[in-house]
Amino acid sequence: MKIAIVTDAWAPQVNGVVRTLQAVIAELEKMGHEVLVVAPDGFASFPCPTYPEIRLSIAGAGAVGRRIARFGAEAVHIATEGPLGLAARRWCVARVRPFTTAYHTQFPDYVAARTGADPEWVWRYIRWFHAPAQAILASTPSVMAELSAHGLPHVRRWGRGVDTALFHGRVTPDAAIHALPGPIQLYVGRVAVEKNIEAFLASDHPGSKVVIGEGPARAALARRFPDAHFLGPRFGTDLAAAYAAADVFVFPSKTDTFGLVMIEALACGTPVAGYPVTGPRDILTAETGAMDADLSRAIAAALTRDRAACAAYGAGFGWAESARQFLDALVPVEAVPEAA
Asked: Model pTM?
């Protein structure tokens, strides 16, 4: 099948959406499917205000639609609610062409955290954007229930996976991180206000706090918390070694729908601490982590978990099954209409 995926989030951005799409596309291609990615790198763009790492594309429905039509797409998936997603939605709706969408981030809470906007106002946009889709793909039962409660019942499960060849319980820990005073508490992800990293850095549990990642809040947080270790972004085996070196992985976000980094940490044998919210609540078990409204208590509890149990649990998340769920949700068309 020829599958067109339209996304405003793509390399060189480093986030869960990009990594999920890259992993699933790799699995789809292994299955013999052909995938077109319509992303910001194919259009003129400008940096998002307050978040320059994100590029906002300047593209109309016709430009996006012509790429989909030339490719001969048999199914269209719109991954994000940004400018490219809007253009693809407009093109599909105008042609009564079926498409699927995905809900990757608690977008209303994300926008509220960055701008102070009323989340209910943002939900009106979410309902409008996703309503025409034949299916909305969501990562966990909690997110599916929330979308349904907000008037979007046509939801399909699309779980996440981990590269178990890279992230596993036999990874050699990063020596420099491992040498820090323990217990070593690690955060990995975007360094941005919506990730609530401040709550992690302000927690009073003793030990060393390590932040891996980049983002607009890094400089301010580094000034405010000079004892924390900001190591910048890491990838591949270097990232796996960082997970393995930590005694606990801390996930302070309250706006993520899943939290891919949690299962990567678990696969490396590192227990997870977080708040009892969507994401941790759907992933963590009593044996693999701890959740508490007081993050320091969650960290203390997570440190008592067995690393072997965490690694065994994390190894159960596979990208092949995620790709199959994605494929099953697609709505193919028999003929591709010409773009105007």
From this structure: 0.80
